[in-house]
Queue: 3 jobs
Job 1
Amino acid sequence: MNNKTSQRLGFSLLFMFTIITLFFLGAIIYFIVSRGVKVISWEFLTQFPRKGMTEGGVAPAIVGTLYLVLGSTIFSFPLGIACAIYLCEYSPKNYVVNIIRMSINNLAGVPSIVFGLFGLTVFVKFLGFGVSILSGSLTLGIMILPNIIATSQEALLAVPQSIREASLALGASHWQTIRRIVFPAALPGMLTGAILSIGRVAGETAPILFTAATFYTRFYPKSIFSEIMVLPYHIYALMTEGTHPHQQAEIAYGCALILLVMVLFVSGIAVIIRQRQRSGYVS
Amino acid sequence: MYRNGSIRFKDINFFYDKTHALKGITMDIAKNRVTAIIGPSGCGKSTFIRLINRMNELIPKSRLEGKIMLAGKDIYDANIDVVDVRRQIGMVFQKPNPFPKTILENISYGLKVNGIKDKAFIASKSEESLRKAALWDEVKDRLNDSALSLSGGQQQRLCIARCIAVEPEVILFDEPCASLDPISTAKIEELIIELKKSYTIIIVTHNMQQAARVSDFTAFFYLGELVEYDLTNVIFTKPSKKITEEYITGRFG
């Protein structure tokens, strides 16, 4: 086989694999949209479920998901960024810090159900927060913390060393350099990371199974100690429990569509921020 | 005996971990003059000038022996704050490195971090610095544009303006024209000659003509040693060491 033929063959194979990947992606979207769109209506988005989950809407689940996203972000974003700044800009480069760094990376690989169990033991039982928005937010927050730290560290590392030096050479202290130069330059990258983890928070089921979610509630949450309905768990419940599997499945696909749109919307924002940042500085 | 802005190096040895980068350097640098540091890559030129504003301290496992005196004071003395040293000794880097902020914010940054809050003062100082850096006319209508929208040469002059806004006594130039076109280079060189009225200037350069054009004194470094240091026209017309002559005539380097 000569060079040209093998090159053509190589490209064709790569092209084919790309198409296969796109096919799966397209299939998922088609499948969810075609089955889910039937049940989407104003009522579906704004009403409580009725008649044993077979009619009405899923508004409390949407609201619950938003609360969890908000709660876990408020908790994990400042913590993760602070941690990343310390590790990147301040910490001495020794083995203790390396161990800390490795532990954080390993934390990212812990299965989410383990975080769920941890949340149940610590937040729900030990600290007595009960099955609630607070417990769920903290559990999800801890789960995404390693991602936020990792993306924040990447964002900090992407800030050119040369502008740190420029700042120090002007007589700025290390802290002023971080606060006024490095942090603002890294912020869009950090936000991108945080927003992408929001997508994960919205979609996770296992960590909230024991810490925040309930199958059915007749009220919107009153406080951070209320238990809530949440979209992914609602889908799970609709497909595994109840007495009208057919009608419930329809509603589950509707929920899946809403969840998909929410996550795509959030990822879209992240993409826009990232592009702004790219056009913002190339040096 | 020492005037402000004159610098004295005494028995300087500098190590990156186990690499002996500068070997036994003793020299005085004159106030309000341009001193060029020349030599082949890796001879310690940049290391040498980065000692003056203590930038090498950022490198782990580096070690300095000897003394560097600015206006009679040891700038590495334990009682001296590194931030004060850097305020007195400005630096312009090899690649233009404006902050990803507006032109005005770039200039005012040095003043603000040094605790100056008076807006009128900052505004007038910013204009004055931009004028001194021969950039004012080009940017006066776009002070709130991003500094990154400027051309490379303009960015470098902005970095010079940013540096003189904090009124240092010494300005270090680390190959300031390495990434610039000839016209921008000519502008920077004019500027350096103009600036020596007010500042002591040290410039590292790979460009022999540049050293000859802008400097009053030239120091030739080779393999971490100071080989020869004299008036620029002496170095370029009748150097006393053979290796200096070989370098400036382009036989190696």
Note: The radius of gyration of chain A is 23 Å.
Job 2
Amino acid sequence: MNNLDLSFDPSDVLARVEGDRDLLAELVDIFRAEYPRLLANLRKEVEKGDARGVEEAAHAIKGAVGNFGAPVVSAAALALEVMGRVGALMGANAGMARLEEEVERLQRNLARMGGGTPA
Amino acid sequence: MKILIADDDRILTRLVAAGLKSRGWEVEIAHDAMQALMFAMKAPHPDVIALDIGMPGGTGFQVLEKLQRSSRTSHIPVVVVTGTITEGDEARVVEMGAVAFLRKPADAQALHETLARVTAQGA
């Protein structure tokens, strides 16, 4: 199976790096190195129930994934950012699970494009 | 021309730096507020600064205020580039001395055009 996620647009990703696949590989490597820490930070804030912390940590993830387009992942991060902003964290655990799933999906899509150093 | 990009998003800074370098800019990157101030104060100073608002170690507002207060950096035009700013914040950064404002996601071409415009105005 080679079905790319419809929410992910490889041509948009390539346009963002102005066609430079080496740069894309470098960005994906940075993303791979960064996202476990960003997700762990957000998870910690969700567990603490710190609304401001959730907002800030989710915002950082939204920015990172937004560099690759990825509207579905960005939306999942935005949902948590908004929960934090309005101080309503009832759905934060479910939102966190969805975000983690979408980040993994983004990783797989980027890997399919040939982005990043093979693990 | 030399630009200092102050933003904690390492993917964005690498992406924008590549695009600006290919357009002839010399690029320096700071990933937190303290680093941004250090790089701005150090000679040779950047010709322009692209400043994010939400950074570790201090907000972009605080960085902007310190840049404007220092005789070493008050002449450097600052372009605020951020994804979280409200209309009130936008008015505040302009009042504080920022010369332009860009909303994320800001690509290299948009940033290049804005930087070229503000540095030409200051020349």
Note: The longest strand of chain B covers residues 2-6.
Job 3
Amino acid sequence: MEALVEISQLVKRYGDFTAVDSLTLSIPHGCIFALLGPNGAGKTTTIKLLMGMLQPTSGTLRVDGLDAFADGVAVKERVGYLPDEPAFYDFMRGSEIIRFAGEMHGLRKRVIQERGSLLAERLHLTDALGEFAENYSRGMKKKLGLICALLHEPQLLVLDEPTNGLDPQGTLELHGLMRESVTLGRTVIFSTHLLDQAEKLCDRVAVVNQGRIAAEGTLAELRQRFGADASLESLFFKLTGKAPSPEVELVLAGKE
Amino acid sequence: MSRPSNVAVLWLFARVALRRAANGSALFAQRAAQNLSKATSRKATVPSRLQKSLGSRAFAASFGLMIVFGTALLLSRSIPSITQAVHLDEMSPSNVIPMAASDYEALRTASKLRDAKQSPDEVDKALASMTDGYGSDWLESRGKEILHEKLAKQGIGGFRAAEPTSEWRGNLALLSADGRLRALRGAGLYLLLIGGSGVFLTMGLMSRNLSRTDPALSWLFQFPVSRPVLFLSKLAESTFSSSVGPLAALQIAILSWGFGATFGGGLALTLMFGLAAAISAGAICLAIEIFLAQCCRRKTRGVIVSTAAALGSCGLMFAAYFPNAAPTTRVFLWMSDSLPSYVFWNPLSLGIGTSSMTAGIGPIWWIAPAITALGLATLAVTWATRLTARGLASAIDSVPVGARRAPIEPASEGFFSGLVWKELLQLRRQPEVLGQVLSAPLIVGFLLYIRNPDQFVRVAAGDVAGLCVSAFGAASYLLVLAGASVLRTELRTLWFLQCQPRSLADCLRIKARVWAGLAIAVGVCLLAAIVATQPGHRADVAIRAPFVIAYLWLMAEISFGLLSLGSTVVNETTVRMRRLQWVTPLLISAQCGATLYRGLLWEQSTLLVVLFVLSMAVRQKQLADLPWLSEPVENPPVRFDALDALLALLAFVSVRDLCGGILQHAVASVPMTLGGAYLIGAIGVWAVVSIWMRSTGRRIPVPNVARFKFRPIAIGLAATCLVGALWVGVLRHSSEAAMAQSNMRVPTTIGEGTAGNWLFLATIVLAAPIFEEWLFRGLLYRSLRRSWGIATSVVISALLFTAIHPMASSVAVLCLAVATALVLEKTGRLWPSMLVHVGYNAFIVALWNLPL
């Protein structure tokens, strides 16, 4: 089966700074895929490129066989996106933003209402939907953004640091939603720097460092390649070359 | 860890602000240097929308200079004009009029000469020198009238040389002590007006922070610094970084020159005043900002802010324009006369106009503003500290609990209605947007009135054409303002639109259409009012009304499009717009207004065509460039678009007309002028465009047609010549007037063979066809063809081609344009369509010159 997302030799430069450096990746249908990496590794840039918000300097990026930038509109019908810090119109209430997002996707009003209230109920946002979205806390904004991203039942869900700012309950619900999406045949890509989360959730992992893929594969494959007993944490440090300082190691050792 | 001392915190803030102010002034020089080096070396630079092109930077620089010079000019004219008005009042018949010593000498010699009947002009000259600096026409003419009357009645005895005073200079020196007080009160009132309007306008600009407390302030609140120090630091920051200080300093520098201060004294006064004004303005703004954020509900704030913005801009316009009109100056003087003296002890007029300050420049001139500024600062800081005693208000309008469980209720379906609904929701929920935008027509009316009240009254009384133009102007100004303020809010949440399955260009287009509907509604209401009040002129309104509506519709797309193309999304709170994109729609609407005023059907229709093509070109650029609108900023790839082709056309028309005007004086012959101007314009524009395209790498992709065909050329030539012959026949048989209008009629005297005629003939048969094919088919048609199909591109380019030709030849020219575009399409090369055009023109010239 052809992969859902095909990235080959992707490069993105800002002047002299190279944010993404010849990144090649393919993500199959129906899996949870995690982009791991330290801050500034190029995760968000990759995701923005995937959403067609940025144009690659060179290389191609295809979603379901469509070019992410040139066929942006068609790609966005298939993708739901949650940015790290979603900002909303300051003059609209939460419910109105959901309605607007649904109408932009051309959904019928019954569908918007049904799916929207179902998702809001699950994410415990129903009580706040009458409030202006600008007054939401960060976590609430994330939840609202998630509802907007899931409303049109996209084939691919792209989440940029999804659990940042969410409460434990929200995080659990989010994980549930992600697994559920996969059982329905959808694909989820998310970026994170929280390793335990990635370990619990994902089928496949790519570790990004300085704009390049340091390693990619299922967790089992990675373990096999880099030593059988290695935890994702030690793998991460090994691959990114950002090992904790000896003092930290000592503290960690003492704790255990 | 120790807490930083209060002084250290204050110093920190002041240093940041000072550095920012210094950077701001250094930035211009630095950018100019960068531009120079870039222009010479043309190295690849960081791709960013912020890195503007040399042209737009030059424009921005000249715009800035214009503002500075304009402010200086207005200030140097408006305050002196009060003095002059007072001076006029003092020239009553019973007084002996004091004159500057040199003027008095000149007048005495001149009047002696006149008594000897030698030179009456010298008297006029001597009297004129006294009223020369009066700035306004009405002041000058009234002044001359009074002086001549005086001279006729009392002779030279009615005048005396003023004693030279060290304290006052210019007209102030000629005034009596009372008159001087009046003039100074006028100046004080003027400063009050400018300062007050500035404060109102600043309040209007605070709408950015309407929905929450200033994020910078809430960030600062986390530091271990007491609140008074915090607000004092904020005050220090705004003191140095606002432009109020320099402006006030400029005002007082001009004033102190008028008061005859010494250089050192004037400089000290200027610095002191500038600082005091900056501190006062900062304090007032701080107090208002904290008050708005802590005590007002969101809606109330919206209303306050929009009213303040409207009042502020009205006040500033009044201040800028009042010296030009007699009644306004009179009202101004009357107001300053009737106000009690203590009013002038306010911080904005800085004590000018109080009697203690009219004695001359003494220590009180420095002490008074300093004390008021310090007092205001203390008050503002205390007030802000008290208002935030319970912490920063979150400044949120919460909905009542009952309304909280709001179900998601879509009332409509589909993306079009969704966008329209959102736009209307914004208008209802953000009263400041609607207020600012709807107050725009008011400001336009006010401006028209201030510029020339007599004409304004005349227009309102009977000139229907002028009224229609005003209706259009008001509505189109609304569009430009709306574009700026609405796009700003839209682009701040760019990501949200970007992840919807609709292109940004389409979303913005629908936005433009909503506003076009609103502007048309305003325009139609105004037109209806005109029809109702001017029942005798219905036909005049009827011929313009459809064009007003159509222009507004297209103006909306053009101005929203240009504004969005000139926008840069820096982050979620900052969206920048280039000024050029702001000014262009205004210039276009001025052209529309001029055309509407003349009300000629053909002219209005051609402008409609031009606007239509422009809106298509803007749309093409939007479709190509808006996907690049992103954060961080990026530059779209360079292309040659229809918009560039239109710019080339505009450049050609301007150069041709300019050269025509110059040549007309140099060469007497009409054919020489026409031909020469055309050639200069064509060659100049061709050279500039070619060099520009080559140096910037802009190219138009040319489709590869492998095999060359002759048949399209033959068919095209035959068809155009046939239509041309028929059309010439119709014209020659219809009327002589139509023939005179057709420019093909000119070379009837080729047989005589003057150089001018040969030049004109060469232009019309060779140069014009080749250049026009290059411009209209080579540049415009090909760049249109990239985005649209054959039919659309042919129709658009042909309509524009017809629009720039005279009405008499319109049908034939339309056929020619269609034919040459199709020839280009079929052969894939440009020279065959040039050939057809040359053949057609030669045929038509021959036809016209056939003896009948």
Note: Chain A has a mean pLDDT of 84.
